Every structure is written in structure tokens, then in C-alpha cells.
Amino acid sequence: MKLKQLRLCNFRCFKEETSIDFEDLTALVGKNDSGKSTILDALDIFLNDINPDKDDASKGSNPENMKIICEFVNLPDEVILDDTSPTKFSTEFLLNSKGRLEIHKSYSGNLQNPKCKSIEACAVHPTIDRVKDLLQLKYRELKKRAEELGINLNGVEILSNVVD
Questions:
Q1: Model-level pTM?
Q2: What are phi and psi for residue 41, nearest 5 degrees?
């Protein structure tokens, strides 16, 4: 995997969401106090699962909305997300509209000891009427919906929801 883009929001000198794109070779050049070290510190916090400092929230912004967002390209062909079953990021609908893995980490910058409060993947997932609520359906409702949609249930163990 390769880091393609970093976005910072309400993090130190980056009050508004700011995007930094990375190519094959990237150099951070700028005047003193322009944010070069902040970019590297944000990457350290994101990649090494470190909590930010109490002063990392941007002054004059909403400290509860401190975010570090990374987008990755050159993803592996297969990954293990659940137990030992290999899958693909695309099969799991974990890619954004650009085909990248986009991870958002939000931090509680208003606390004395800020912590990561959420980690989310920003992804495009197909939506079709009559399947948006599948995760909320009970067993009987799910079976009825499959029949209504004309889904072939051959090979599905009806009592355990396991595919043979």
C-alpha cells in the first residue's frame, strides 16, 4: 500500500480541511511554522496509533472535529479481514469513488488527553431499493425478501444462514 493523500482538519495550523498529495517523491518545503512538522506528526499519530496532544486541536475551531484522513493506493490483491478468509477491498465495498482505501480517524481534541473516538472507511457502496435494510431484517423477513427478489436459495442452509 502507498499513501496517496493526507487530509487534516482542525489539526494544529490546519483549521480548514487541507489536502496534501503524495507522489513517488515528495519533499516538504516551506517557511518556518508553515506546517511541515505538523504533517509528519499527523502521519505519526495516524499510522502508529498514537493519541494526539491536548494542544493539537486547531485554535479557534471545533476541537471535537479534529480529523486525520489518509487515502491509500497500490492496495494488495487480497487481504484477510475476517478470520482467515481472503477477500479484496473492492469485494467488500471499502473503496472510495477514486478506487482508494480512505480511512478517517476522528479525535476528541476537546479533552485534556485526546483520544481517537472513531475510525471510519469512506466508501462507495451500491444501494438498491429493497436491499438497503437487509442488515436490520429478522430471519423470516430476510427469507421473505429473498423470495420477493427471486433470489435462488439453493445451497443455503435455511436454518443456519450458512452457504454450503
A1: 0.77
A2: -65, -40
